[in-house]
Amino acid sequence: MSNFIPDCFWTYNCGARDYDFFATWGNLTVQRNNFQYMRITLYYWNEIDGWKTKSETFIPTNPPTSDPLTFFAQLSLSWCKGIQNCYQAYLGKSYKFNTLVEIIYGGNGQQLVIDEYFYDSNSVSTNLKYCKTDPFYDETHPSCTNELPNC
Predict the structure, then answer these.
(1) Do the beta carbons of residue 140 and residue 13 sit within 8 Å?
(2) SS3 state of residue 25
(3) d(CA 68, CA 128)
(4) Which among 4, 9, 26, 87 is placed 20 to 30 Å from 74, CA to CA?
(5) Predicted confidence (pLDDT) at residue 1 exceeds the cutoff of 50
């Protein structure tokens, strides 16, 4: 993905009555002089739960290194897993999210540097909702779409 912009989407599974949200960068190749580590973070908000944060750190085998390294980068959040009738509370509710990729390099006598790459869902819409025509809804289970409200 160019500029470290993830592919983001959410799904609704009517069989399990739960939701999943994914931020996927796929295979990211990073190369910096004295590369130390990379961290990806997902900041996710909805009307019911407020803010949730999830992150993952990728560290080369022998840091620091100046060799190119490739990592598969994906973060996901799930809710309503195993909670009866939980899914109904989210229908039509608002959500938003941001992602951050941080590449940390330097050291060994150099100053540590942090390259930061942000993505904000507001760049697509400021009115995201759990509904059929939401731009981030992925119809993974087509038979479930009719259970979602119109936007």
Answers:
(1) yes
(2) strand
(3) 37
(4) 87
(5) no
Beta carbons within 10 angstroms of residue 125's beta carbon: 12
Does residue 147 register a pLDDT over 90?
yes
CA distance 128 to 92: 9
- Average pLDDT taken over every residue of the chain: 94
In angstroms, the CA 140 to CA 5 distance is: 22
C-beta of residue 145 within 8 angstroms of C-beta of residue 9: no
Give the distance, in angstroms, between the CA of residue 98 and the centroid of all CA atoms in the same chain: 8
| The two structure tokens encoding residue 43 | 């900041």
Distance of CA 70 to the CA centre of its chain: 18
* Residue 9 Cα distances to 2, 34, 96, 135, angstroms: 18, 34, 11, 8
CA distance 93 to 95: 7
- d(Cα 40, Cα 53) in Å, to the nearest integer? 11
Q: How far apart, in whole angstroms, are the C-alpha atoms of residue 47 and residue 129?
A: 10
- DSSP code, position 149: P
Show Cβ contacts of residue 83 under 8 Å, excluding neighbours closer than 6 positions: none
